[in-house]
Amino acid sequence: MALKDAAGWNQTPADWKILLELAPQSCFGIECDGKLAATSTAISYGRELAWIGMVVTDPVHRRRGLARRLLEHALQYLDARGVGCVKLDATAMGQGLYEQLGFRAECVVERWLRPAGPIAASQNVRPYAADRVLDRQAFGADRSTLLDKLARHGAWSAGEGFAMGRDGAQAAYFGPCVSRSPEAARDLLGAFLKTRAGQPVYWDILATHPAAAGLAREHGFTRSRELLRMVRGGSVTPDASLNFAIAGFEFG
Ligand SMILES: CC(C)(COP(=O)(O)OP(=O)(O)OC[C@H]1O[C@@H](n2cnc3c(N)ncnc32)[C@H](O)[C@@H]1OP(=O)(O)O)[C@@H](O)C(=O)NCCC(=O)NCCS
Description:
By secondary structure, the protein is of the alpha+beta class. Helices cover about 30% and strands about 35% of the residues. It contains eight helices and twelve strands. Strands 1, 2, 3, 4, 5, 6, 7, 8, 9, 10, 11 and 12 form a twelve-stranded mixed sheet that branches. Strand 2 and strand 3 form a beta hairpin. The model has no long low-confidence stretch (mean pLDDT about 95). The protein binds coenzyme A. Coenzyme A (COA) binds next to strand 3, helix 3 and helix 4.
């Protein structure tokens, strides 16, 4: 938590716990003088896809090759297990390293922020029911184990879609949201915002999704930062039009 706080990130201990539970063998760290100095996580969605996250080095230990060593180690681990495709969401600070390790740009991911404020709630949601077929189509790989864990923090279904949301260190987090229609996505967003009227909210949107950005504007969100989704190897082909909100930079 201290490392990610130094980077100004939004994850909570619950997010770390999910990553460590999903992939205890492929979350790596380097200690310097008995203290954790750098981390990386890599969760696998079957053999098809792995997602790298939480690449962060203590500011006092930066530019000494720690992140490079962790990434090389993680990629060796994944390659040895035959994982065909590896993706991540890169900050500007990380992009150069990832390019050197064979990652190429896939698309921009935009972080949108809504300040705390009231919201007119939608009545059209129902209790969450997993839709693995829809999620697989949207994401391109089977992330049902992750979704089962995230759903415990808050989840809804509406129309042909579902959404989840959870706490964050700086702002509550809306996502993932997968839907066949903007109408269902609007209802799902309303259900989440109703539970968070007193809090700021983050929503990460693929820049290739104008309908999601339109909904964000309509609900008082503004764009606050940009990351670059990058990919190495593989042929995992998501249907981005269904993906109204990603699950998190660290989850995909
Ligand atoms: C990005 C980060 C993890 C790099 O950690 P690090 O341990 O300092 O990285 P390394 O020393 O292994 O550097 C590897 C390469 O990354 C690139 N790099 C590292 N820091 C950089 C920076 N501030 N700006 C641009 N490129 C950078 C360089 O190409 C570097 O190789 P070089 O030193 O031979 O030129 C670290 O700066 C950090 O924690 N930043 C805040 C969190 C963050 O943005 N993480 C990336 C998430 S995708």
